[in-house]
Amino acid sequence: MTIGNLSTTIRMAPSYHSILLIALLPIPIKMGDVPISRYNAQKEHNRMIQQHVLRHVLGPLMDAERRVFYVRCADDYFRRCVASPAAWIADYPEHCDLHNIKNGICYWCECPPEEMGEFLVKPCERRDHTLYRRLCELDTPAAKARLTRHGVHQGSNVLWHLDCVVSDLPKPDLLHTLQLGMLKHLLGWLQDFLKQQKRLEEFNNIWLSVPPYLDMAQPQKAYAEVSSWQGKEIKTMSRFLVGVLRCALRNPSPSQRGVFNEAIECCRALVEFYFYAQYESHDEETLGLMDEALKRFHISKRVFRQFRVTKKVTDQGKEHRKRLIQQRDTAMQGKASTEQERLRKEWETFINAEMVEYHEEGSDFNFPKIHQLLHFGEQIRRYGSLK
Predict the structure, then answer these.
(1) I want to staple 143 with a disulfide (CB 3.0 to 4.6 A). Which of 7, 135, 175, 340 is the partner?
(2) Rounded to an integer, what distance in angstroms lies between the CA atom of residue 5 and that of residue 21?
(3) How far apart are CA 84 and CA 164, in angstroms?
């Protein structure tokens, strides 16, 4: 727990003790290979245990008498204070458990899951936890159906009993949403893209040749050898990623030029958005640049869409490729060797293009962290800098 009127410099310094440990929440044991019914029942049980623990921890904030107290301030005057939660910093899965909402949706707004990967000009309606509380108290089939449509779990939520606007508690988190979120996703897409274009080795060589500069250490491992990215590593990497990528994708063939330019633009736009989000102060000009960078990212991200395939689509794609190869082998039977070589090259081009189209049709960008970027500008306008 901390208080909101402390500067980031003080809050992030452990020696100032500006953050106090209130409680350690229980972490349930992960269940292995069990029937889905038992798994869901245990998951619901774990969620209710967490709600009971939070009710015990936050109990003083629900008591009207205990949450009002007097404090002696720096000017020697006593002031009447009212304790109320203003922000809750957590990763996406933790917010889902905290707000009793289902995985895969936004905890700020009612954006449909199938539209999360789009750049929405008009913001969606904000979540109304007062409505959810009323529906939960009704406990009727119609009320339960409405809760399901909103993506809310059955059962009470401890936050509904606090004197605060529940939908205002989540705040943008640069570490979880951008560093360990979108930038980490981008690194995965980029690695698959470089493998496909046979430029990964060249990218690794340029990556290792980046010299140290001021507080930026020289990379010790090749890009493809890093098994687990940390927030500090991604923060350092973002300073030279676009330059290394631009050098690795130089001298493209005519067929590669458009794809390479789009990949560079996508990386550049997301890194720019990340840099703008770190500003300690904003005006309408910087917020406009931030929105413009996010729009460019959404326009150019289609170059990585084929690398967003699910495991199910990947398995189906392998079967589809086998069928195409069988058709190729049938078409090549009885042909002369020169004719077979010509047909093999034609079929290889056709199969590769067919698989790219197949994967793009079976993939999308509809996941929560890419949608949450749309809320960054709105949150900065309402509450100020994210730093």
Answers:
(1) 135
(2) 18
(3) 7
What are the pLDDT digits (tens) for 268-313?
A: 999 999 999 999 899 999 999 999 999 999 999 999 988 887 777 7
Total-model pTM:
0.84
Q: CA-CA distance, 113 to 107, in Å (whole number)?
A: 12
pLDDT given at position 370: 95
Distance CA 17, CA 31 (A): 37
Q: How far is Cα 51 from Cα 48, in angstroms, rounded to an integer? A: 5
Of residues 30 and 264, the one with the higher pLDDT is 264
How large is the average pLDDT for residues 348-377? 84
Question: pLDDT tier at 327 (50, 70, 90 boundaries)?
Answer: confident
The closest of 298, 190, 294, 297 to 245, measured between CA atoms, is 190
Q: Which long-range contacts (CB under 8 A, 24 or more apart) does 64-69 make?
A: 67/163
| Whole-number average pLDDT of the chain | 88
Dist CA 265 CA 271 (whole Å): 10
